[in-house]
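Two proteins, back to back. First:
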Amino acid sequence: MKKLILATMVVAFVASCGGGSKAPRNLDNACSIVRQQPKILRAMKKTERKWNVPVHVQMAIIYQESKFVHDARTPVKYVLGVLPMGRQSSAYGYAQALDGTWKEYQRAEGGRSAKRTKIQDATDFMGWYMNKTTEVTGIPLHDARNQYLAYHEGRTGYLRGSYKSKSWLVRVADEVASRSIMYQIQLANCR
């Protein structure tokens, strides 16, 4: 009996230590998010200082991309509804950065040790990417809607207007813009 209790305690301890960080609760409240995980705000403020991307814009896009889940992945595709055929894309982590774009960031800015599952690296990536977007497209860094459209479609897709035929994506971009404003107001009033 003692061995069973000891084994149960060891399993419970190991389970409580694993898995990285959990997503914050109440994702509709920026103050609650930063109270639960202060590292999120620290990372975003650092990115804001370095890249001039407002915290509320970063928060709204990370909400849309991963709901603050550090190891978020796209869903698995199935053939005939049962045979798994891999993921929809290589998007991964807080910022849902694609493999190729992440490697480009690592070469240009983040270094080989940068990880998509670290909030500091994910927000720095977003700052880097959005600044490149501004250079190429002229979209202001505070324009959450159009930065999101370019983030989702890629800069070339955005310039071609590929999003215009995707009413669902335009709706999502409008939601990102609304969430950005909501987070901005909330962050200004956090106690």
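And the second protein:
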Amino acid sequence: MIPSRVLPISLRDANAFVLAHHRHSGQVRGCKFCVAVVDDLDAVHGVAIVGRPVARRLDDGKTAEVTRLCTDGIANGCSFLYSRCARIAKLMGYQKIITYTLATENGASLRASGWQCAPGLRGGGNWNVPGRPRADSRNTGPKRLYYKELR
């Protein structure tokens, strides 16, 4: 089965798909838009959730972030979703779209979609501080930043 098209999907339904299928990340709290990749029978095989950048210094009003992307293994589903998210973000007026992968992931679907990997690694710790304790995420390791200019 190959991806047929994308359809809008609610954040609730996208989060449910992420919880059922994502290897290491959970649901997100908010978004700008969500899309689902579907087959000819409109069965959902993957979702992408796009929102504001999590990193405050990147939240300039012109940058969108793919905060979750998940498929059930459909061939080319990830690159299909990354391409469509970039196209939709551009139509919405964004100038750049970003996402992060774990350092252990190879990013092939992003490169296939025309995204570039920024040099170096990002993050790697947690945000827990004495004045505001937070629960550790399963994803506290270093990450790679991928981006695509939308001009």
